[in-house]
Amino acid sequence: QAKALGRNTFQFYTEAMDAEARQRATIASSLRKALERDELRLVFQPRMSLVDGRITGVEALLRWHSAELGDIPPSVFIPLAEESGQILRLGEWVLREACGTLARWRQHGLTDIAMAVNVSVLQLLRGNLPEVIAEIVEDTGIPPARLELEVTESMVMANAEQSTAALHALRALGVSLAIDDFGTGYSSLIYLKRLPIDTLKIDKEFVGDITHDPDDEAITATVITMAHSLGLNVIAEGVETEEQLAYLREQGCDEIQGFWLSQPLEPQRCLAFVHTWRPTLATAVPPPY
Ligand code: C2E
Ligand code: MG
Ligand code: MG
Ligand code: MG
């Protein structure tokens, strides 16, 4: 009986896994045509300083509408693009597009905001990223310090030695560096101290629960203190409520990003958002005591 059950269970899993593998292969093969078919675009999510309520920058986020498969979220296609190596080509497109957009916005007077771009560790370790970025910065004429590269904590720490060297090479170009999804990986504090980074982004998983989970509250407060003692700027991502914002401000978090401020926006709408944003709206939020 147990044996029969075991066999059925096994069969069930292999069938499910086959179906999933086939689906992933379908998505990966469509993704190969996405660039030529013009199916990719960027949206931009603003972030705000908790000190003065100014918009300090935006994050470029990749969107894919496949003619064959419909909208596929980055949580699905980015890992596939990393597995297949396509992320090198896609990532370069993202960097060009994001920097080109920032260059246009700068002509519209937005000269004091940064453009944050997510970079896969594969780009960092296998690609000629410093050369690519030097060329893009030159072509678009943006100040390198206005470009911020985000790499996820788990990816960097899994390749700590090589990542550190690659980040130093990027830093030499004058671009800013941030560790993304901080708190979800297993950072060695030694490496964290050695990394040539400017910013930590606290993962939205902790931020989402700070106002009702004491553990997440403690983790968030500790990360902010630790980051500041290492001289790093701290951004909380996934801030959705005024309560979360008030708590983060009370803890001395430097900046916030999330639906409370804005969803990711089309380029034109993002430009309009930043132009019409008035810091007083944000700074008027009272502390919780
Ligand atoms: P991420 O870099 O941590 O980006 C933040 C994600 O949180 C985005 O999801 C954003 O839409 C979402 N988000 C923002 N505010 C809120 C909020 O208040 N609540 C909630 N629940 N979510 C919020 P998205 O756009 O689906 O991207 C997911 C991940 O895919 C990104 O996480 C990033 O790791 C990756 N990704 C996106 N675009 C690129 C890209 O161009 N290159 C690479 N390598 N990865 C990318
Ligand atoms: Mg990011
Ligand atoms: Mg993140
Ligand atoms: Mg929790």
UniProtKB/TrEMBL annotation:
<protein>
    <recommendedName>
        <fullName>cyclic-guanylate-specific phosphodiesterase</fullName>
    </recommendedName>
</protein>
<feature type="domain" description="EAL">
    <location>
        <begin position="24"/>
        <end position="278"/>
    </location>
</feature>
